[in-house]
Amino acid sequence: MGVLLDENSRVVIQGFGGAGQREAKTSREYGTQIVCGVTPGRGGQILEDTPIRNTVREAVDEFDANVSLIFVPAPFAADAILEAADAGIPVAICITEGIPVQDMVRVKRALDGSETLLIGPNCPGVITPAARARAGIMPTDVYLEGNVGVISRSGTLVYETVDQLTRAGIGQSSSVGVGGDPIIGTTQAEALALFEADPDTAAVVLIGEIGGTAEQEAAAYVAQMSKPVTAFIAGATAPPGRRMGHAGAIIAGKAGTAEAKKAALREAGAMVADSPSQIGETCLEQLRSAGLL
Amino acid sequence: MKLHEYQAKELLARYGVPTPGGKVARSADEAAAAAEELGGKVVVKAQVHAGGRGKAGGIKLANSAEEARAAAEELLGTNLVTIQSPQGQPINSVLVEEQIDVARELYLGAVIDNQSGRPVVIASAAGGMDIEQVAEETPEEIHSQAIDPACGFQGYQARALAFATGLDGDLNRPAVALISALAQAFEENDGSLAEINPLVVTGDGKLLAVDAKFSIDDDADFRHRDLLELRDKSQDDPLEVEAEEAGVQNYVKLDGDIGCIVNGAGLAMATMDAIKFEGGDPANFLDIGTANDPEAIVTALRLIGADPDVKAVLVNIFGGLARTDVIAEGVVQAKRDGLIPQPTVVRLAGTNVEEGTRILDESGIELIRADGFADAARKSVEAAVGA
After folding, report:
1. Beta bridge partners of B247
2. In terms of C-beta density within 10 A (0-12 exposed, 13-18 middle, 19 or more buried), how is residue A73 classed?
3. What residues of B are in contact with residue A164 (Cβ under 8 Å)?
4. Would you tell me which of A25, A170, B8, B177 could form a disulfide with B3, CB atoms 3.0–4.6 Å apart?
């Protein structure tokens, strides 16, 4: 049933402020088990029908939390991720935008060999529609239960993509926002591997963007996948050397361009949409040609 | 945030990187005085945030204080157009430095390698050139060492880079110290890019950082208040500075004529792509983020509306955290206040879209409504052509 989240997911929210409370409510209405909130110094309170604890360890011990959703502000977010890992949380999803890159360098190093899988930061989170499991900030009504996995660096562009898929009658097994930062916990290639191994996923849609070489690494993996991949790369019109909102979306060298990434994905056998308004149609075409429709 | 050459050198010098004797000057008189102090034979270097200054005429040799004065007069107050900044950047200061007797030029740099998730120190014996070109044409001349954040940059790594680039014999010890100093400065100041290019071996066998670049991770601003004071906003696009001061963080000015207001960086890039796909050209990248405050939307719209290049505006919102009703209110208010005289295409989807649509419907304001992404892009291109 999709990847990373299922009906047994028990979510603790780290940083239970405005955004955390709002998203706890939306997720709970969707059907997700939000079991606890963590805000240091507020342990023992109940906010938005959610028991609050001081530490992630308590959330694990008392509420069997197995997913952490992190909204902690950027200067303290690295600390929050490491606390989740130390408490043995298997899946930590960090929404926070603007974490210093060198903080992520240290986090990535510390998570080497750890049991914790980090998704994000600077991502919209993860949703598995069939399990009504949502750990993120995405609007729920665009998602439809189905067998296509979605991976994206961006938030709103993935809502747009999923909306196009849903309107075309293509449901999703899970949607994973890997994040728009230069250094992220789970790469596009690693997320592809999760979907390749998931029996409920038949095909994958990959939404990349300019900057870095993550799409080329993803392409290398696409070439050995058994499941068909449809892709789009945002930023074909972005000028080099400028940061386009996302810290990771900056073209430095030819590999960072949309053109180079599209070429690598096509070479690997993915079907690549040229316009962002054609992602849904392109996926339909891909599913038809793979005999999945 | 980018530092000027003289600021980067001051920062690196604090860590023990040797730099040429020099002084920053903001007037021709100051430049002449600095040249006098440095013995007359100097280089006058325009301080702008762009590479390729030499080729663009931004670096001048002067053999006397009077020549230095003339060089500074020629540079100061003008715009330097380089390959990296076609629209030019204002020269408000020059760095007056002693002339160096160059025996060899090398390259030394530090950058974050996204793939390995580590900072990397890079050295090459091919100095004074564009390092990307070197990497492409002669990759064997690029040597690199990744920094393990658990234990920091080690001596053996500095030695490996020094030996690989021919800095041996008497040069080895100072080279190791210099390379280690750059790595330390990069780590301690949240560097996103540091370059010493060229790193020079002088005729009398000394190492000197003859040019230097240093950029600081914008997301780490909060722990480098001291360095923030070094920021020179005159080097940035004035519209972008205005946007930032108004609290619109993610605005990048482009060459086209369709102003874009979008929520989310990915969707904002995709919107630009869709405009291009339909045959138009975006005037900007703008991500309003999750600004759930009509005032912030109005500010963003005012900026776009005031851009003389903009012939049509496209508002493309897919509400997640951002609420389309709040954005609709902002659009209506900006239109009523005459802040966007250009024809305006609005496409709303996602959170509270019924309410957002109702606000637009009931406003009685002339807007071009779009249904879906492709329709929005197409209509904005038509509107710009018709304007």
Report:
1. none
2. middle
3. 373
4. B8
Measure the CA angle with vertex B297, ends B334 and B313; round to 5°.
Answer: 65
Chain A contacts of B217, Cβ < 8 Å?
Answer: 100-102
What part of B 181-240 touches A (C-beta under 8 Å)? Answer: 187, 190, 192, 217-220, 222-223
- Write out the DSSP string of B70-118: HHHHHHTTSEE--SS-TT-EE---EEEEE---EEEEEEEEEEEETTTTE
- Asked whether A131 and A5 are in contact (CB, 8 A), the reply is yes
Euclidean distance between the first and the last CA atom of chain A, given in angstroms as a whole number: 20
As given in the structure block, the two tokens for residue A176 are: 């994973």
Smallest CA–CA distance from A256 into chain B, residue? B114
Which residues 6+ apart lie within 8 Å of A285 measured at CB?
A: A271
Across all residues in chain A, what is the average pLDDT? 96
Residue whose C-alpha is closest to residue A218's, from A199, A200, A191, A194: A191
For residue A191, is pLDDT > 70? yes
Give me the residues paired with residue B262 across strands.
B287, B316
Task: Give tens-digit pLDDT for B93-102.
Answer: 999 999 999 9
pTM over 0.80: yes
Pairwise CA distance, residues B191 & A283, whole Å: 41
Q: What's the CA gap between A182 and B115, in Å, rounded?
A: 9
B252 touches chain A (CB under 8 A): yes
How would residue A148 be classed by pLDDT, with cut points 50, 70 and 90?
very high
Q: Tell me the average pLDDT of chain B.
A: 93
* Locus of tokens 């001051």: B10
Cα distance between residue A67 and residue A13, in whole Å = 9
Q: Does B84 touch chain A (CB under 8 A)?
A: yes
pLDDT tens digits for range B58-94: 999 999 999 999 999 999 999 998 877 777 889 999 9
Chain B touched by A79 (CB under 8 Å): no
Task: Please name which of B108, B70, B90 lies closest in space to residue B213, comparing C-alpha atoms.
Answer: B108
The B residues from 277 to 336 touching A (CB cutoff 8 Å) are: 277, 282, 285, 287, 318-322
**Known active-site residue B195:** yes
CA B300, CA B315: separation in Å to the nearest integer?
Answer: 11
A223-256 pLDDT per residue, tens: 999 999 999 999 999 988 888 888 888 877 788 9
- Whether A213 and chain B come into contact, CB under 8 Å, resolves to yes
Q: Catalytic amino acids of A?
A: 246
Q: Does B26 touch chain A (CB under 8 A)?
A: no
A99 neighbourhood in chain B, CB within 8 Å: 219
Residue A230 phi, psi (nearest 5): -110, 140
**ipTM of this complex prediction, to 2 decimal places:** 0.92
Catalytic, out of B6, B107, B251, B329: B107
Task: Kindly tell me the burial class for residue A43, based on how many C-beta atoms sit within 10 Å of its own C-beta (0-12, 13-18, 19 or more).
Answer: middle
B174: tokens are: 């100072």
